[in-house]
Design brief:
The complex is a heterodimer of chains A (about 300) and B (about 400).
Chain A: H1 3-34, H2 41-62, H3 70-92, H4 101-122, E1 139-141, E2 147-149, H5 150-172, H6 174-184, H7 186-191, H8 196-218, H9 228-243, H10 248-268, H11 271-288
Antiparallel strand pairs in A: 1-2
Chain B: H1 6-21, E1 36-43, H2 50-69, E2 77-84, H3 89-101, E3 107-110, H4 114-126, E4 131-133, E5 146-148, H5 157-167, E6 171-177, H6 180-196, E7 199-206, H7 214-223, E8 227-231, H8 236-247, E9 255-258, H9 263-269, H10 271-274, E10 278-281, H11 290-303, H12 311-330, H13 335-342, E11 346-349, E12 352-356, E13 363-364, E14 368-372, E15 378-383
Parallel strand pairs in B: 1-2, 1-3, 3-4, 4-5, 6-7, 6-8, 8-9, 9-10
Antiparallel strand pairs in B: 10-14, 11-12, 12-13, 14-15
Helix pairs in contact in B: 2-12, 3-4, 5-6, 8-9, 12-13
Classes of the chains: A mainly alpha (about 300), B alpha/beta (about 400).
Chain lengths: ~300, ~400
């Protein structure tokens, strides 16, 4: 195997890692920090993708000259839209189900189905084409035979930025301390006077907003269709559970491991075998470490 | 002395009400009892195959509409009964059973993936139904209860492989979805290449719905084939083409020919991502003949000027026409009678004049190879003579 191939494969591993991480960060926040199983996470990613589609249409119609700039605005808009949808969702449904994890699963699964049908009904049942901005098209050619797609480079940078900002938010800001306090010991933080309602709402909204960012960036790589959420959700849950539900660092590490494994297994075996092998590996690891790779003891 | 027992009266009244509410189709042999005849339509309206199959329903409804305007079949209007297979073979089998048993349809036009067709095959054979299968497939089948209006392998993948070897190169890389059609098709292509002494440098399969193709693209870049044969099916093609485009593989002199991509899929993939790639089908919207011009015009009038027509739509339209013609000729909706009368029947289909084979339930048809242009339409590079269908070829 040539050095070019190794380099491209390593890059692919990093790219898949960044995609998995971007998807899983939102879910970790919600699932890990709040114990809420959000089965609609995939549909929220789809919502982010459709929002970006909407922004692209808007630009095509009113500012065709500025079409190149639409994508960053698209990502930001996707975050805002899914953040507010998450806010609305938490206030109406999720907050009533905190003590009932199975019911939350059921409720969010139902919401996911409703969202899918809404996309089908009001946008289109078939995939829509979201244009890739010109500055993100094509590849970066290091040599004649060694090239890296620009959209993937962008996603890698985006996911590193998001992960870093999230870390800073959680560890260096006041809101971050509140969220971590409520996660580690809900009752005690309530006793200390922290407004749990507000923390819950904004944490959930943040998780949804992150899903929106992920979905938005995936418009460059895959279809934007009502059911794409289903393609993403399983991988996302595997990453989160494998990494250890409470741990942000665990999620990141698990995404990196799975990303590299998937790339190399797919190179040597078929896509189906690679997938099966990864799932087997996850099962084996979870057998020995049922709480995932990194487990932090929490109360409440 | 009778005491009016209110409870008994209420019970009897409720029973009477329920009985009158039962649909009349519960009675046997209802297809001939009223002024309509039921035609089942069984396709994926949702799921990963919806991108290909949803509009096939619209082509079938167009044909039904056209026939009804001319008076229907045997004096009866065709009533379509649409069911959603949801891209899941088990659901297809269940809905097929429902159409045949509960709705008592005279025939069904349906299915796209071979997985779905294989799932409904035993249902149609057991219940003696009639299925018109409008999709190109791998062949190796001849059911007494199915009429195949799409291409089988010798009329599509094998013809394409021979053309590619003659015109584009001798090293081939195969990528496909992981189920019976791509696997069998690629197996048939590889046998053909063995016969032609050409080289197979790679072969990879991914599950339906898979969207991460960077590894296989890296492998293709390493193997440097002259030709890539794409047997990826459904929504995954959108991801595959987008990722192919950004990798730069589409810009070089590697030929990419897809066996499961029509104008329909391209509208989801994005014209700019598919431009320059090839496709092998019997029908392309850009075919210029009287029948097709009418078909495309009617379709666009009904469904919108931006809509496109692909191979499966044309074959589905043809299927409905063939069924109506055979029923008229047989003067009956009986399955065996229609199948018998279909033998050697000719029709002016949108793809040109086609003939039903004497006994193998397939059609004589031409195959074409075309290149996608920037507008999503196809420039035809090659048109074969009329090919005899050989679902069980000697390789």
């Amino acid at each position: 195997m040539s050095i070019d191939t190794i380099a491209m494969q390593a890059f692919t591993g990093v790219s898949i890692f960044s995609i998995l991480m971007l998807m899983a960060l939102g879910l970790t926040i919600v699932f890990g920090l709040m114990g809420v199983v959000n089965m609609a996470h995939g549909e929220l990613m789809a919502m982010g993708a459709y929002t970006t589609y909407g922004v692209s249409i808007f630009f095509q119609k009113y500012f065709p000259g500025l079409l190149n700039a639409y994508f960053l605005i698209g990502i930001f808009t996707a975050f805002v839209v899914t953040f507010f949808f998450g806010y609305f969702l938490e206030r109406t449904i999720i907050r009533r189900l905190y003590k009932r994890p199975l019911d939350t699963m059921l409720a969010t699964w139902g919401i996911g189905l409703i969202l899918q049908q809404l996309f089908r009904q009001f946008i289109s049942p078939r995939p829509v084409s979201v244009p890739t901005s010109e500055w993100l098209q094509g590849s970066l050619y290091v040599t004649e035979s060694l090239s890296f797609p620009l959209s993937r480079i962008f996603i890698i940078f985006l996911s590193i930025t998001v992960a870093t900002l999230l870390y800073i938010f959680l560890h260096k800001t006041r809101w971050g301390i509140l969220i971590r306090a409520v996660t580690q010991n809900r009752e005690m933080s309530g006793a200390a006077g922290i407004n749990q309602d507000a923390v819950n709402t904004y944490t959930f909204s943040l998780g949804c907003g992150l899903a929106g960012i992920a979905g938005s960036s995936f418009t460059m790589l895959a279809a934007t269709a009502p059911d794409i959420g289903q393609s993403y959700i399983v991988d996302t849950f595997i990453v989160v559970v494998f990494g250890g539900v409470q741990s942000l660092f665990g999620t990141i590490l698990s995404a990196a491991l799975i990303g590299q494994m998937q790339t190399w297994l797919e190179f040597y075996f078929s896509g189906s075998m690679a997938r099966a092998s990864i799932l087997m590996l996850v099962i084996v690891v979870l057998y020995f470490r049922p709480n995932g790779l990194f487990y932090r003891k929490v109360r409440g | 002395m009778h005491q009016i027992n209110r409870r008994a009266l209420a019970k009897r009244g409720a029973l009477a009400l329920m009985a009158s509410a039962l649909p009349s189709s519960f009675s046997r042999g209802s297809a001939n009892a009223t002024n309509t005849v039921k035609l089942g339509i069984l396709h994926s309206l949702t799921g990963t195959i919806a991108i290909a199959e949803r509009s096939v329903v619209e082509a079938e409804l167009l044909a039904i509409d056209m026939i009804n305007k001319k008076g229907g079949v045997l004096g009866k209007k065709i009533q379509p009964i649409i069911e959603d297979g949801a891209s899941d073979p088990a659901t297809f089998a269940e809905k097929a059973k429902r159409l045949l048993e509960k709705d008592q349809v005279a025939a069904v036009v349906g299915c796209y993936t071979s997985a779905a067709r294989k799932a409904v095959l035993p249902v149609f054979e057991k219940l003696n139904g009639l299925l018109y299968y409008p999709t190109y497939y791998e062949g190796l089948e001849r059911s007494p209860n199915i009429i195949y209006t799409g291409q089988e392998a010798t009329q599509s993948s094998i013809a394409a492989t021979e053309w590619l070897h003659k015109n584009r190169g001798s090293s081939f890389y195969f990528v496909g979805s992981d189920y019976i059609w791509p696997r069998t098709t690629i197996k048939l292509c590889k046998s053909t290449l063995r016969r032609l002494h050409a080289e197979v440098v790679g072969e990879n399969y991914y599950p339906l719905g898979h969207i991460e193709f960077s590894s296989v693209i890296n492998k293709i870049k390493t193997a440097k084939p002259r030709v890539i044969v794409n047997c990826v099916v459904g929504g995954s093609n959108v991801a595959f083409f987008k990722q192919l485009k950004e990798s730069g593989l589409l810009d070089g002199n590697t030929t990419i020919l897809s066996l499961a991509v029509t104008e329909e899929e391209v509208s989801g993939i994005g014209n700019e991502n598919a431009a320059g790639t090839l496709s092998c089908m019997s029908y392309f919207q850009s075919l210029d003949n009287v029948s097709n011009n009418t078909f495309v015009r009617l379709f666009k009038d009904q469904y919108g000027p931006e809509r496109v027509t692909g191979d499966t739509l044309a074959c589905a339209y043809t299927a409905v026409l063939l069924w109506a013609m055979a029923a008229e000729k047989a003067q009956s909706f009986d399955v065996q009678a229609i199948v018998a009368e279909s033998s050697e029947m000719e029709v002016d289909a949108p793809e040109g004049r086609v003939t039903v084979h004497k006994d193998n339930h397939h059609l004589w048809k031409r195959t074409r190879i075309g290149k996608f242009k920037e507008d999503g339409q196809v420039e035809i590079l090659y048109e074969s003579p009329l090919l005899e269908p050989k679902p069980f070829p000697v390789l």
